[in-house]
């Protein structure tokens, strides 16, 4: 399996740093077939005009972000537009100081398509939409683009697309801005185009500024940003895409909010999104949120502290260990098996060797021994995560590559080598166990 050096470098460096690479995921995807199949089934429903909402729940380093990025890659290949954001103290779903709007801005900044997978695709999407309508009009009418009647026909098609938005909340203004963009595109007015894009990105801070520059007396705010996500989903379908997928990770940052009322407002926003998608109030829209078991299931300050969500999301009486319900709104990630981890480190060995241009020296026995040592530590069955194992293994590959005289088997068995030391309870640092938060409710 030949992998380009640029991708190999991104994969190895990202994983060594404990983060998920945004490219090259197909080269290292192992397991998770059931989860991926379930989420891709949702994607089929979204493409037909439905909507979906899922939570991906797993411990730190268990593969939540990896699964989200894998789905992101899959759906872009299916002509979806993807927006994603990690929540943080500055980015929430709702806030009084622009935290909700900050999340919206991050989502739009990261708007990605198959041809623009690294984000910043908004202008490309708008231009492609208008260009596509022009091409259709030429094919259907046979008119030359310089013919005065041509612009009229293009305008009619544009209005047909945006009329589907007028019935939605804020749809009239959204449609008006698309019209302004179309005229600016046609006239080669890059300044006006930039102003419309600035508005869609949520960067106007006052209605006065938006009114003077664009003639619209409305701006995107903390309270209504989600309505514009729904508008984008419908517009993107009209513009030739399959739909919109929203990925929001690090829900733990809502769990960490010390003020209980602020947390409740954020959970209320999640409830609105959940109800909209399940009740048919949203179309062509999928939402996936990632969080730790604690930030979801803690009934004092987690998602389940909001009774309306707990009653909708909590497992039923038939759920039990080892039985997965992939149709439930909450997908719990189970640890990768030892066999799956072995396959993963085999792939990493190949990628590392291709990146640095050497013949792999680790044998199958070496890799099996490495897995046995990692999972043989006390508490590993419940505490060790793929992130830790991967980081350890890449460090081992780096050491062996830089010190070819070392025997891998001796290295692994060495009393001075940290991997070979049996781990004691509580000695694995903060990565192994989800941290507890000591803030008090206000």
Q: What is the average of the pLDDT values? A: 88
Instruction: Note the total helix count.
Output: 19
Q: SSE order, as H and E?
A: HHEHEHHHHHHHEHHEHHEHHHHH
Task: Compute the separation of the termini in Å.
Answer: 55 Å
C-alpha geometry: globular
The low-confidence runs, each spanning 5 or more residues with pLDDT under 50, are: 419-442
Helicity level: 40-55%
| Rg computed from alpha carbons, rounded to a whole number of angstroms | 25 Å
Major beta-sheet overview: 5 strands, parallel
β-sheet strand percentage:
5-15%
Number of DSSP strand runs: 5
Structural class: alpha/beta
As laid out across the biggest beta sheet, the strand order is: 2-3-4-1-5
Could you walk me through the main structural features you see in this protein, from its secondary elements to its overall organization?
The chain has 442 residues and is α/β, with parallel strands linked by helices. Helix content is 52%, strand content 7%. The protein contains 19 helices and 5 strands. It has helices at 5-16, 33-47, 64-77, 99-109, 122-141, 148-163, 171-187, 190-200, 207-214, 225-238, 252-255, 260-279, 293-297, 307-313, 338-356, 364-375, 380-383, 386-402, 408-413; strands spanning 51-57, 81-86, 244-249, 285-291, 330-332. A 5-stranded parallel beta sheet has the order 2-3-4-1-5, sandwiched between helices. The radius of gyration is 25 Å and the shape is globular.
